[in-house]
Design brief:
Elements lengths: L1 H17 L1 H29 L13 E2 L5 E2 L27 E7 L2 E6 L9 E5 L9 E5 L4
Antiparallel strand pairs: 1-2, 3-4, 4-5, 5-6
């Protein structure tokens, strides 16, 4: 009877232990989402300190990360870096363990390295088209 009970407990408990890798990847994606939201907020606050930076789709330029001079889009980083033109979100956030791609003109994706399906284990940043409206930041964890 004891052996049967141990077998049942092992059958129930083992999948939970095997899922720690997924849990870690999900936590990393959610943490990355928080870092991206924080970076966008920091960039927006810096933009608000520069006259006319926040008032148009291409506001006045500012000095950002690494001492670079660029512009913001509607007060926030763009979804895609445009050198000598606009800061992208990837200019404002440092991420380890993620592959950063810019698949569309207005979007950056941070895919978790080592995920079974990295295309569905990621954070997506989509730039705003309206002045003062926060960019869309979405985590996808189905493939973690």
């Amino acid at each position: 009877m004891t052996i049967v009970m141990l077998g049942v407990l092992a059958a129930i408990g083992l999948p939970k232990f095997l899922n720690f890798g997924r849990d870690a990847r999900v936590a990393a994606v959610e943490s990355a989402k928080g870092a991206i939201v924080s970076a966008a907020n920091i960039a927006m606050i810096k933009c608000q300190t520069v006259p006319n930076c926040y008032r148009s789709s291409r506001g006045a330029g500012l000095t950002g990360p690494n001492g670079e001079f660029n512009h913001m889009h509607n007060g926030f980083p763009t979804g895609r870096t445009r050198p000598n033109n606009y800061f992208g979100i990837k200019d404002w956030v440092q991420m380890e363990g993620f592959t950063i791609t810019e698949p569309y003109f207005t979007q950056t994706e941070f895919s978790k390295d080592g995920a079974p399906d990295p295309a569905n284990c990621k954070v997506t940043y989509v730039e705003t088209q309206i002045i003062g409206v926060f960019p869309r930041v979405v985590s996808t964890i189905d493939g973690c």
